[in-house]
Every structure is written in structure tokens, then in C-alpha cells.
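Structure ticket #2291
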Amino acid sequence: MEGDSETQSPGTLTDAFIIGTETRIMPLQFITNDATRMTLDTEGGLGIGTSTPSAALQLKTSNPTIEAPLIRFTTQTDRHFDILQPDNSNVDNPFTFLTNNAFHFQVDEHDAITINSIGKIGIDNTNPTEQLHMKSGNLRMDGGNIQSWGILNIHPDVDNSGDDVVRFLSS
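Resolution: structure written out below.
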């Protein structure tokens, strides 16, 4: 084993088990089957699958399989959230976020976006009933087009009576 491995309590630590280097500046590496699998560098960066992490936590896979899980978070009841590997040869192929439940995003404890288990999206709405369902607010578009390959109905039905309809028909 390379480096200094000590089981003492230096400095102000008491009753501590310490693995690492105290005086020599070198990373701590975990090796299996004669290959480095995980590295804790001297700046505190942890690399899994890389010996030179470029962030506080860097995961790198050598698995060439497209959509293989890179990261999996699993609950006690086996509900999971995966981040899947994209096709590295195609920059238009995105990372995939996969779950067997809904996604919910909060900003400062405010319900921002929900994607339910059948793909309906709620903005400021945790129970969307339409493909895109905004609880309130305005929709703004600075330029561009709204396209429909069929009839486009707009319901400015402020009194919920169902009688106010604006309809645009294709020509």
C-alpha cells in the first residue's frame, strides 16, 4: 500500500480513526482488480471512475451502453430516480432523468414545476389535469409562432360558464 496510513488522533481530534496522509501531499485511492476505482484528491474532490476529479464530486463511467444508469437514488421501498448516460457520439442525445413516479421541482419551498406520472406538466400547480396546466399568471412569448395542425380554441371563460370561446380555424 502506498502512502501513510495512520490510526491515531492528531491535533484536536479525539477518539477518531484516521485514514490518509498527514504530512505527505498525495490523494487517497481505492483500488480493485489492479485499477483505481475511486480517488479522494488533496483538495477534497472525490472522483469515482476517475483519478483526477474536476469537481467536488465527479462520476465517470467506462460503460459504453447508451442509457445505462450513471447515478441511481433508491428509497427503502425501491422507488428510484436514475440519471442515464446519453449517446456520447451524438451531442443532440440528452441525459435522461428516469423515475417510476412523478417529478416535482421546488424553488425556495415554492411549488414551481410538476411532471406527473403520465407526463402532464403543472406550472405552479402540483396536480396538472392538462398537458400543460398553469395555476395562474401570464404566458409571455417574445416573438415566434404558435402552430396547430388542427383547430385551436382559446377559452377566455372568466366566469366559468363555458360560453366565451375564441376560435381560429386553419385556412
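Closing remark: Confidence is low (pLDDT under 50) at residues 1-9.
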